[in-house]
Amino acid sequence: MRPLFLLSLCLLAAPVRAGNEALARQIKPSLVAIYPAGREGTEAGVGSGFAISPDGLIATNLHVIGEGRSLRVEFADGTTREVVAVHAWDRDRDLAVIRVAGETPANLPLGDSAAVEQGTPAVAMGNPLGFRFSMVEGMISARQQIEGRPMLQLTMPIERGNSGGPVLDKEGRVLGVVTLKSTVTTNLGFAVPVDELKALLANPHPIAMKNWLTIGALNPKLWQVPESSGSRWSQRAGAIQVRGSSPGFGGRAQCLALASPPALPYEVSVRVRLDDESGAAGLSFCSDSGDLHYGFYPSNGGLRLTRFQGPDVSAWTILQQGSSPHYQVGAYNHLRVRIEEHKITCFLNGELTFTSDDAALRTGRVGLCQFRGTAADFRDFQTGPDLATPPADPELRRAIADLSNGADPAPAQRAALAADPPAARRLAAEAAATLQKRAASLLRLAAEASESSLASQLGRFAAAEESAIPLAESALLLARLDNPDLDPAPYLAEIERMASDLQAALNPADRASPPATLAALNRYLFAENGFHGSRDDFSNKSNSYLNEVIDDREGLPITLAVLHLELGRRLGLDLAGIPLPGRFLTQLRLPDHPEVGPYIDVFDGGRLLNRAEATALAQDASGAPPSDSAWQPSSKKEILLRILNNLSSEAVAAGDTDRLLRYLAAHIALEPNAAAPRLQRFYLLTRADRRPEADADATWLLEHRPPGSDEAQLRELLQKP
Predict the structure, then answer these.
(1) Topology (CATH level 3) of domain 5-209
(2) What are the extents of the domains in the chain?
(3) CA-based angle 489:338:295, to the nearest 5?
(4) Which of the 8 DSSP states describes residue 54?
(5) How far apart are CA 264 and CA 625, in angstroms?
(6) C-alpha to C-alpha distance for 487 and 465, rounded to whole angstroms
(7) Residue 440, exposed/middle/buried by CB under 10 A (0-12, 13-18, 19+)?
(8) CA angle (300 as vertex; 295, 305 as ends), nearest 5
(9) Partner of 678 at 20 to 30 A CA spacing, among 140, 269, 436, 562?
(10) What is the pLDDT of residues 194-248, one digit of tens each?
(11) CA distance 640 to 466
(12) Is 267 left (phi over 0), alpha (psi -120 to 50) or beta?
C-alpha cells in the first residue's frame, strides 16, 4: 500500500504560546519566500527557505524550486536577492540549497537530528496559504521511514504554501525541513532530518543559474544575448519570447543570431506580436553587439526605421516613421528588411513601407530588438538573399474573396485553402480585419483546412510500414494540432544536430559496445543537457508537445522516450519503447538476447532498471503489476496514440471540446477502423449542434455497428431536422 502522504506542503499558522515571541524575532530575518516560475514563465505559487551561511546559501525543498526554473527570493524585510546558483540538490531527499547574491547576515544554525528524542518540542516557520513568515508549534512525535528515507514525524498543523520551511528546537537550531503532509489529517506532517541536509552540503555540485535554467533556454549555438541586457529572452512552442526590461536608456535590448548574415545584398525577416501596441520590438541589423545597429519595428501603434549610434537618444536617428494600413493590431506582423550597399528597404506584411538611402552602417550581425520592457513574441526569423513571400495562389485568393463576400465554401475552395494552410490563415486574417461578421467562419475554415491536412498526413504515415514511419515528425504533427504555426523543420534539424554531437563525442570503444553507447547517450541527454521528467507540472499539455519538450528539456515519459528512441536509432542502438502502465520506459535490445537488455527510465535521468525494478516502478505508479502484454515493445503508431490519449485526458479535464475534437480526428486518422473515437466524436458533435459532421459519423457507425453504439438512438438522431 502506498503511504498516505503528498508532496508540496506547508504549515498553517496556529496560536503560539507566550514566550516564543523572542524566538520568532530571532528566526524571522533568516526566512525567505521562494517564488518559482511556472511552465508559462509566470510565478507559480510560493514556498519557503531559510539562510544557513553568510555567503548566501538558502536551504529549501527541491520540489519548491522545481527543475530548470527561474526563482525569485524575498526576505522577511521585503528585499529580494538574485539567485546566482543551485549549490546542491537531491531528488530522493527532496532537498535543495540555492545561493543568492551577496551576504546573508542572519543565518540559522544546524542542529543534530540524530539526537532528537520523541516528544521534543519544536516550532516551524514559513508562508502557509500566503500568510508569510508565520509560526506554528508542536512536537517531534516519532521517527519514520517514508519510501526508504528517514523522516521526522511532526504533530502540528500542515497546509499548502510553506514547503521548505525550517523545523527548530526552542534554542532556534534547525532540526529538519518540512516536506510531507498527511492526506487524512491536517495535524500531521513530516520533515527531512537536518542531518540529511548536512550530508548534502558535504558533497555539493554547484550549478550556475544560467545553466540551471533549461526551461525555454535559447540555443547558445544559435543565439546570443549581450551580457548588459536585463531582458529575459526564451523560447517556447517555436516562438522566441522577450519579457522584462533592460537597464539601458529606453530599455533597449538585443538578441542576436550567431550566424553571420549573407553578403550584401541580403534580407532579414521575422513575424512579431506585441502584448501592448504602445510598446516596441522588431528587427535589429548591422549590429556591433552593442550600441551600433539599425532597428525596424512597430512602436506606439506606428512603424519606425531607426539608426542607433550610441547609448542614449542624442545618438539615435529616426530615419523613417509612420503608420500603415497593413499593420494588424494584436496579431503577428511580418517584418522584412532588404539591405543593399546604398539602400535599405522595409516591408510590412509584404507591402513596401519605408525606403532609405542611409548607408552609415553595413557590417555586423542581425537579430531581434526590444524597447521599453515590451513583452513580445517572435516567429520565423530568417536571413537570406531574397525572402520575399511568393504571392498567394490565384485560386486561393479567389476562394478567400468569394468567402469574404458570403459564398458558402465549395469543395474546390476548401481544396485551395488546404493546399497552402499558412497563406490561407494570413489571407483569412486580413479579410477578418475588415469583415468582422465573417471573421469567425473564415478563421474556422482555415483551421479546419490545416487540421484536415495534418490528419491526412498522419494517416499517410500510419499506413506506411513500421520502419518507414517518421516517429519524431509524426509527434511534431500532433503538436501542430494545437499550434498550427509550428514549423517542424528546426526541431528535426535540432535532433540531427544532437545526434551529430553525440557521434562526434563517441570513441571507437563506445561505438563498438551498445551499453557504452547507451551510457554516452544518457549522459548527454540527462546530465549534460538537463532533460528531465516534469514532476511539478505533470499535467501540463506542453509535456506532450515534442517541440516544447526540446525547448524546455522537460516532459512526460512518453515524449522523452520519443527523443531517446530517435537519438538512439541514429547512434545505431536497437532501442524499444516499453508501454508499462503509468510509466513508459525504453529498453536496450542486445543483439543476442533482446529480451534481457536493461530498461531505461527516461523520466528519472536515464536510470537503468532490471525487470524486477521496472515491475515495482509500474506497480507503484498504477497500483497493479504490469500484464505480460505491457512488456511487448510499442509500435510507432501505438506511441503516437499514447501521446494522443494523454492530450485527450487533459482536454477532458479542462472541458475543452474543440481540442478534444482535434485529438479524436487525429486518432481516427491513425486508426481509421477504430469505433471508440468515432463514437465519442459523434456525441460531442451532436451536443455542439454540428449536424453535418455528426451525421457523417453516425452513418459510418450504422454501417459498421461497433459494440457500445446504440443503433436506435443513432437512427433517431439522424432523422431529426
Answers:
(1) Thrombin, subunit H (2.40.10)
(2) 5-209, 223-384, 394-463, 477-639
(3) 90
(4) T
(5) 65
(6) 25
(7) exposed
(8) 25
(9) 562
(10) 999 999 999 898 888 877 877 678 888 899 987 766 788 888 878 999 987 887 7
(11) 12
(12) beta
d(CA 480, CA 687): 26
Locate 234 and state its grid cell.
526564451
Rg (CA), the chain: 29
The Cα–Cα gap between 205 and 202 comes to 10
Q: Strand 266-274 and strand 333-339: pairing?
A: antiparallel
Distance CA 175, CA 327 (A): 62
Paired sense of beta strands 554-555 and 532-533, if any: parallel
C-alpha distances (whole Å) from 166 to each of 11, 455, 630 are 10, 53, 43
Burial of residue 403 (CB within 10 Å: 0-12, 13-18, 19+) is buried
The grid cell for 110 is: 544546524
Topology given in CATH for the domain delimited by 477-639 = C8orf32 fold (3.10.620)
Residue 168 contacts residue 27 (beta carbons within 8 Å): yes
Count CA atoms within 13 Å of residue 258 on its CB side.
8
pTM: predicted TM-score of the whole model, two decimal places: 0.74
Give me 94's grid cell. 527532496
pLDDT, one tens digit per residue, over 253-289 is: 999 999 999 999 999 999 999 998 989 999 999 999 9
Alpha helices by DSSP H, 360-505: 394-404, 411-419, 421-434, 436-463, 471-480, 488-505
Taking the CA atoms of 657, 659, 665 and 666 in sequence, report the sign of the dihedral they define: negative
* Domain 223-384, architecture per CATH: Sandwich (2.60)
* C-beta atoms surrounding 653 within 10 Å: 9
- Residues 299-312: b if buried by 16+ CB within 10 A, e if exposed: beeebbbbbbeeee
Q: Is residue 619 classed exposed, middle or buried when 0-12, 13-18 and 19+ CB atoms within 10 A define those classes?
A: middle
Burial class (CB in 10 A: 0-12, 13-18, 19+), 721: exposed
- Asked whether the beta carbons of 581 and 575 are under 8 A apart, the reply is no
| 392, three cell numbers | 498567394
| Residue 604 near residue 557, CB atoms below 8 Å | no
In the structure, what pLDDT confidence band is assigned to residue 714 with cuts at 50, 70 and 90? low
Phi then psi dihedrals of residue 378, to 5 deg: -120, 140
Query: Scanning the structure block, which residue is given the C-alpha cell 480526428?
Result: 665
Residue with cell 511552465: 39
pLDDT in tens, 588-628: 988 776 566 799 999 999 999 999 999 999 998 888 889 99
Give residue 9's pLDDT band: very low, low, confident or very high (50, 70, 90).
very low
What is the three-class DSSP state of 166?
strand
The DSSP letter of residue 711 is H
